[in-house]
């Protein structure tokens, strides 16, 4: 089994080129394809999730394998439903366990032709593309915002546009806002008309030049590193304060954990300064991808926490709630789960493994969130470190540039 051992740096003073945001890349690619743009968006990520999207849209093979990319699976399902031709879309074993029924039902009720080729409710799907006939539907907004983004993005190309009503508590709302904003930047008319209603006018997209900004979710691991260091400065180019990404909230949250953020014209500087709160409570409903970063950081800082709004974590790359509980236990921390939507830690400890090896469950964020813990531990190993390629292929090289030792076992 591939595994690495980590050694902490003595001090950190480094500039890191983060990957560009896969959420923005994958939206820009779909919208650009629908706009019949003849140039690609610029600064596309070389991460797996974006590369599968580029390959699918460039080659459009009869069977499209999007590996582990949730956005690619959901966005391409809608795209293929309105694009001429018959395609099968599939992914990894885990992708075949991530639900897609809500999106398929919504597309079918708008007139799309989609069949399940294996298990009802899950990929793979066989899709026969056509113009949609319907334009008004209601669907749950409390399972994955990616279904909603997928529907919104195809809507300007359909004769009647689209009106959506979302039921239940809406999760990951900033990702819906990101979709609407990018659609508007490509000339579409798309907006919220109420707290739970969305409207997109027909009229297509206008192609334009577009450059993707760096990934704020990836920045969270550098915030974690600074927070767990005695002294550190990290410069992150191509990030801005007024980002479209909801995960830019990480800057404010880490302000509570001893990290300051300085915004320059096209980069941010993180420094270790300021106090750490004695307890942290936060609702991650709008930033689910940050949950792992904060669980590991708070435990390592000995800051008890209660994190809510985690209901979507069970259907991500792995069941992140169980994975966090199991791996934190190896480090000697006993977390409590409540309702499948909350994780808390009130200081309860158990005996830690003497030489802990963190399992990563094919989840990039398990590897990236746990690695910085070496700054507070005697030793730490990460199993299957290659999982980071899903969103941040150069993570280990970047850690090494910051002075971390990375020994392959
Ligand atoms: O639209 C997007 O780009 C994403 C939406 C979120 O998923 P959910 O809406 O399923 O929570 C997030 O977790 C994922 O990493 C990216
Ligand atoms: C949940 C994630 O990705 P996706 O759902 O797009 O596979 C993630 O990157 O944390």
From TrEMBL:
Compartment(s) of residence: Cytoplasm
Pfam entry (one): EPSP_synthase
Reaction(s) the record says it catalyses: 3-phosphoshikimate + phosphoenolpyruvate = 5-O-(1-carboxyvinyl)-3-phosphoshikimate + phosphate
Principal subcellular localisation of the protein: cytoplasm
Domain of life: Bacteria
Enzyme class: transferase
Positions contributing to phosphoenolpyruvate binding: 22, 70, 98, 146, 320, 365, 390
Family annotation (InterPro entries): Enolpyruvate_Tfrase_dom, Enolpyruvate_Tfrase_sf, EPSP_synthase, EPSP_synthase_CS, RNA3'P_cycl/enolpyr_Trfase_a/b
Residues forming the catalytic site: 289
Record keyword Nucleus present: no
TM stretches of this protein: none
Binding, 3-phosphoshikimate: 22-23, 27, 144-146, 172, 289, 316
UniProt keyword Nucleus present: no
EC number: 2.5.1.19
Pathway: Metabolic intermediate biosynthesis; chorismate biosynthesis; chorismate from D-erythrose 4-phosphate and phosphoenolpyruvate: step 6/7
PANTHER family tied to this protein: AROM/DEHYDROQUINATE SYNTHASE (PTHR21090), PENTAFUNCTIONAL AROM POLYPEPTIDE (PTHR21090:SF5)
Protein family (similarity comment): Belongs to the EPSP synthase family.
Protein name: 3-phosphoshikimate 1-carboxyvinyltransferase
The encoding gene: aroA
